[in-house]
Design a protein that fits this description.
The chain is 76% helix and 0% strand. It is built from 20 helices and no strands. The longest helix is centred in the first third of the chain and has 30 residues, at 100-129. The two termini are 25 Å apart. It holds the Pfam family MFS_1. Keywords: Membrane, Transmembrane, Transmembrane helix, Transport. InterPro entries: AmpG_permease/AT-1, MFS, MFS_dom, MFS_trans_sf.
């Protein structure tokens, strides 16, 4: 669909739109885990609570057709961003109440569905406001802008929470508990302010977003399209192997995702590395995420040059084998920040490098057909389900096993990834 004449320049709304999406997602699903840990929750509970917030993003293909039916896509973007901003403001205020955790989890759960709606609508504005040439041109800007979100959230906000806790409120960084409420309230005020500011910016500069040609005209039609897309997915040749690939390719990462940061901040006597939030923000949220971005860029170039089918097993090795760095660090518990940063950067670089294979496989082998976009969303939804399930049980397993044995378990959990990768069928032409 061609770009409308009155559409503002994409650089005025594409970077801010995708940054705002990522900021909400990372605050809900990753930053919240660090907050829960700081507030004194055990690893099992902290990881479980944060993982439940992935659910809405996992099932968003199920309610995406209904969002398409009403108003404009920009309307949903603005409403979602204002609600998300107001919601984080509510979180900050609620933290001063007794028994605030129930209120926090209720607000977070609601905000996760609103955030998922923001993703659907923002993607819709991008796809329907720009023609195919412009979509390709700004794809890199879109990806880079989204990746700035995790750096700001897991890097900047986590770092700032530690700084405020120790230098402004003069609390002990090594003690987890209610003293952390003061600094985390400010963090949520900041996230709320950024999100609402972005809503007003997009009110001025974001295009409305046109209706797609296949937009359902009624709830019944949307339900029928969703059902038909599900049936046609299951009719594809070797679909169960492809679905197993979508669920299991990143299995070990699911077990590592929440526990990695916990391992960094847990005290030495508990088997952790005893880092402060400031150090975690620098190591995990800055250098680690920069390594992911660099790995993704080089991984894409690698697959583009050699093709996906001959490289898929190598990409599986890249995403799984470097997890051993956490096992090594749990054994030796290094105190040198350079060594810790190197360990995290190695794992994150190869995670980014290998993840390219997962996304390209879904695009080229699982998705093609009548409902390409929906089937791709089902594949990524399965990946999200894996992250939610593994994340929810990861903390409990770690507490039972201890860090060294748990990271041994993470290495064992790489085996299903290698099996589904070896069996993954290629029925479509490899266009990588």
């Amino acid at each position: 669909m061609a770009s409308a004449p009155n559409v503002k320049h994409p650089l005025l709304w594409v970077p801010t739109g995708y940054f705002t999406m990522a900021l909400a997602y990372m605050t809900l699903t990753s930053v919240s885990a660090i907050m829960f840990k700081n507030l004194g929750l055990d690893n099992g509970t902290a990881a479980e609570y944060a993982s439940y917030l992935i659910l809405a993003y996992t099932i968003k293909p199920l309610f995406a057709p209904f969002v398409e039916m009403y108003k404009t896509k920009k309307f949903f973007v603005l409403c979602a961003q204002i609600i998300v901003g107001a919601g984080f403001l509510g979180v900050a205020l609620a933290m001063s109440l007794p028994n605030y955790m129930l209120i926090l989890m209720t607000l977070f759960f609601i905000l996760s569905f609103v955030g998922a709606t923001q993703d659907i609508a923002s993607d819709g504005v991008y796809v329907t406001s720009l023609d195919s040439k412009a979509q390709s041109l700004y794809c890199g800007v879109q990806s880079l802008s989204w990746n700035i979100g995790p750096i700001v959230a897991m890097g900047g906000l986590v770092y700032l929470s530690g700084k405020l806790h120790t230098e402004y409120f003069h609390h002990d960084a090594a003690v987890f508990g209610s003293d952390w409420i003061d600094s985390w309230r400010i963090i949520f005020f900041i996230v709320a302010g950024i999100t609402i500011l972005m809503a007003f910016w997009h009110m001025r500069f974001m295009p409305e977003g046109a209706r797609a040609e296949n937009t359902p005209k009624s709830t019944k039609e949307a339900a029928l399209i969703l059902w038909d897309s599900f049936v046609t997915l299951l009719q594809k040749k070797d679909i169960w192997i492809m679905l197993a690939f979508a669920f299991l390719f990143r299995l070990s990462i699911g077990f590592l995702e929440k526990i990695g940061p916990f391992f960094m901040v847990d005290p030495i006597e508990k088997g952790g590395l005893g880092l402060t939030n400031e150090a975690l923000g620098i190591v995990y949220g800055t250098y680690g995420l920069a390594a992911v971005v660099l790995g993704s860029l080089l991984g894409g170039m690698f697959v583009a040059k050699r093709g996906l089918k001959p490289t898929l097993f190598l990409l599986c090795c890249a995403i799984n084998i470097p997890n051993v760095t956490f096992l090594i660090m749990s054994i030796y518990q290094p105190s040198d920040l350079v060594v810790i940063t190197a360990g995290v950067a190695i794992e994150k670089f190869f995670f980014g490098f290998g993840s390219v294979g997962f996304m390209i496989y879904l695009m080229q082998q699982l998705a093609p057909g009548k409902y390409t976009t929906t089937h791709y969303a089902f594949g990524t939804g399965l990946m999200g389900l894996c992250m939610m399930v593994t994340g929810a049980i990861s903390g409990h397993l770690q507490e039972y096993m201890g860090y060294i044995n748990y990271f041994v378990f993470v290495m064992i959990a790489t085996i299903p990834s290698f099996i589904v990768c070896w069996l993954a069928p290629f029925h479509q032409k490899d266009n990588a």
